[in-house]
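G., the chain you wanted modeled:
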Amino acid sequence: MNKICVIGLGYVGLPICSIISKKYQTIGFDINKKRIETLNRKNDFNKEFHKKDLQKLKINFTANVAKIKNYNFYIICVPTPITKSNIPDLNYIHKSFITISKILKKGDIIILESTVYPGVTNKFSNLLEQKTGLKNNKDFFVCYSPERINPGDKKNNLTKINKIFAIETNDKKIIHRIKSVYRHICKNLIITKHIKEAETAKVIENIQRDLNIAIFNEILFFCEKSKINFSEVIRLAKTKWNFIKFNPGLVGGHCLPVDPFYLSYAASKKKIKTITTLAGRKTNDKMEYYVLDRFKNFIKKNRSINKNKNILIVGLSYKYGVSDMRNSISLKIYEKIKNIYKKTYALDPFVNDTKVLKKIEYSEVKKFDVVVFLSKGPIFKKIYKEIKKRKPEIILDPFYYFNK
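Predicted structure as tokens:
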């Protein structure tokens, strides 16, 4: 009988917990005691789950290793950030495998869901062998199944997507156990025996998107400097059958700004210098300054706006619909504008960080002298339309999210 332990209760781990717990005995483990305390009070500070949803779940949440030792199916969903030098930081994965090594038993299955570079899964399965004396794919089984959760996306949610699952064993009983669990997590499970290939597939999914957004950001930058109508350029270009349209914008979060460096790091170990892989990073990182430049020009054209005027930034998290502030360029822009214009506020109904956000009611929006849209979504579109009816001259929509 599978008894599931999900390690890491963030944007990936908690949704997996919620789904699996409907079919299996499930426990959620996290070293963040504050996270455990809030979840046990049925509160999710990521705002992915309402209190009433958590109250329905039959899940125990714990930071106590002793309470997970009798489980036999461990799903690791911990963060994989980068250091200030853009080097992969695997500390959270390392801690997870050290924890498992203390309680590992014969027959246990361990699935790594975190985004990594090729070879990481095997590296940590070797660690388990060294710590326990047990053998991978004989006594225990380490697998890789990269997460594909898109926070804030209600359409492509966990149970409606295809999922890769890499395992090197031919043991039919183990494969059956895995399928019996993961058929509840995803729409379709794509099985492979090639773990390194699965790890590589995951990072290139996000690198491709990063590059596609980057080229549209660069085109937008060119059009602005050349006084060419960007929206009209894209309208005309997409009439060709094989033109692929992307939207320009700010690229943040825990995946797109990180994954190119994971692949580049792995390539450097093979003495390969990546050029295209990191090209999107340079362009997308510059968009912070593009927005600030647009803002400065907007202020110059509206000379009545002085340092005592009210500025509103719409969209503060790294993307619409989530509370996640990791690598949020919108936050950086907000902070830099606020350093000059003290009466700068932010509106983002998905963010609950009171240290950076003063709550603004929608009825107050009309009181501002400048409203800058850094994100797009139904709520923000409604605000845009309301302002455009009354005071269109105060709107700055640098990425043409609504002004098309």
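The longest helix spans residues 195-226.

Shout if anything looks off.
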